[in-house]
From TrEMBL:
UniProt name for this protein: O-antigen/teichoic acid export membrane protein
Keyword Ubl conjugation part of the UniProt annotation: no
Bilayer-crossing regions: 44-67, 79-101, 113-135, 141-163, 175-201, 213-230, 251-275, 281-304, 325-344, 350-371, 392-413, 419-442
Organism encoding this protein: Methylobacterium brachythecii
Key words, A-Z: Membrane, Transmembrane, Transmembrane helix
Record region (Disordered): 1-23
Keyword Transmembrane found: yes
Source species, domain of life: Bacteria
């Protein structure tokens, strides 16, 4: 699929649901087979194109991760990962949540895309100083003793400003059916980060403060180039009435998105605060390795979310499809972790000495990859059907349960070898609660 943008893009992928046949004409079953195959073929081609981008991203991520994890010390890795996580969470409020409306209009009502893009960019400018101020408060509370303020600000700016622009482009192009462009947008930013890591390593490495400058430069170049090339060529017209009418729902989305991401990031804050920088570094490396198991799954999540947005309701067939996808996600995630553990057991230093230190942790937290990926899938289900309020409430509860349970484990069962195995029980409980809420909500959307 061409990544070239046009003023009037054609939606590529499974066609919208057809209307009823005209009365008096019979359907020929023989004609349905090639039509159905064509729809499946388009879906498969779209997935392959997205996966190709994800495959390229995987290779670049391995290079980036290998160099960074073995150039920074474990303590510096823990600090950088936690600061980055803070930026990711604060960045959820970029554009006051209008990113959700941009994605939905791209996938469904493209005539309104220009208005929502304009609203997003105006709200992004308004939200930026608020997000930076919030980051400043967090620095005083949690980070002022572990990293210098300029380095902290550089990392935060990347996550709340630069990366949000790239993420918006990925979602818009995916919603428009431009899977080739979306695939490229998935891979190129990681390539620029990998180039920054290579430069950092070649110059002799250093602390998290030194790395922050390379990190800022690589992401700034990436965002500038990608926005210039891949931003949709459509007319944008700002409508204040649209912002006033949608601001409440946008903030609901921002809060729910923040809470969803906090499910995967809050543990880094708890571990850094209670278990120390080195343990936080080992945990950050383990989670980064676990995230690699989601690479073949995220293209499927993206396409399935687009399909559900177009359908607009949860049918019995879609519920059954979702359950099958859950089984697939669990199987792929667990198999990926076991393969990684087997590789490290045979060749411990294949990814470097610092990564080898995470082997013991990976061998214990066997349920974590599946649950992390399944929670991401649940988030897509919530987003597709617009349950932003329920999503925010559910994820806030899950974040509180996870943070409280993890803090209790670290305090009551030191050292890490004693509490790590119990992480499986915590994650299993979180998944069970999320499953009940998600499919309960889908039942109310069935027609």
């Amino acid at each position: 699929m061409s990544a070239t943008l046009s003023r009037n893009p054609t939606l590529i992928g499974p066609p919208p649901l057809a209307g009823r046949p005209v009365s008096g004409h019979r359907l020929n079953p023989a004609r349905l087979v090639p039509e159905r195959w064509a729809a499946h073929r388009n879906a498969v081609l779209g997935y392959v194109q997205l996966l190709a981008g994800s495959g390229g991203r995987l290779g670049l991520q391995v290079v980036y991760f290998f160099l960074l994890a073995n150039t920074l010390s474990l303590a510096d890795m823990g600090v950088f990962a936690t600061v980055s996580a803070a930026g990711v969470l604060i960045g959820c409020f970029a554009g006051f949540g209008f990113q959700a409306f941009v994605m939905r209009s791209a996938a469904g009502r493209r005539s309104s895309l220009g208005a929502y893009l304009a609203a997003y960019h105006v709200c992004f400018v308004a939200a930026l100083p608020i997000m930076m101020a919030l980051a400043g408060v967090l620095y005083l509370v949690l980070f002022r003793t572990v990293i210098a303020l300029p380095a902290y600000a550089a990392i935060i700016f990347v996550e709340i400003a630069l990366w949000r622009q790239i993420e918006l482009l990925i979602q818009v192009n995916s919603g428009l059916g431009r899977f080739g462009a979306a695939s490229t947008l998935v891979s190129l930013p990681v390539g620029f980060r990998a180039a920054a890591a290579v430069a950092f390593w070649a110059m002799g490495g250093g602390s998290a403060e030194t790395w922050s400058l390379y990190y800022l430069a690589g992401n700034l170049v990436a965002a500038t180039i990608l926005v210039a090339v891949f931003h949709p060529r459509i007319r944008m017209r700002f409508r204040p009435k649209l912002v006033r009418g949608k601001l409440r729902d946008g903030l609901f989305y921002a809060v729910s998105y923040c809470m969803f991401l906090a499910q995967g990031e809050v543990d880094k804050f708890v571990i850094l605060s209670l278990a120390g920088e080195r343990t936080a570094g080992i945990y950050a490396i383990s989670i980064r390795l676990i995230d690699l198991t989601a690479v073949p799954l995220r293209p499927m999540f993206m396409m399935y979310s687009r399909k559900m947005i177009q359908v607009g309701r949860a049918t019995g067939t879609m519920v059954r499809e979702s359950l099958k996808i859950e089984a697939l996600v669990a199987g792929v995630s667990t198999a990926g972790l076991l393969a990684l553990v087997a590789l490290l057991s045979v060749w411990p230093t294949i990814l470097g000495a610092n990564v080898a230190s995470a082997y013991g942790m990976l061998a214990v937290i066997v349920l974590v990859p599946a649950v992390r990926n399944l929670l991401e899938f649940h988030s897509e289900l919530f987003f597709a059907f617009g349950n932003m309020g329920l999503r925010a409430a559910l994820t806030a509860g899950l974040v509180a349960i996870k943070a409280g349970a993890l803090a209790a484990l670290i305090i009551l069962l030191p050292p890490a070898d004693n509490w790590l195995v119990w992480l499986n029980a915590v994650f299993a409980l979180i998944y069970l609660l999320s499953f009940i809420a998600v499919y309960g909500a889908m039942r109310t959307k069935r027609v």
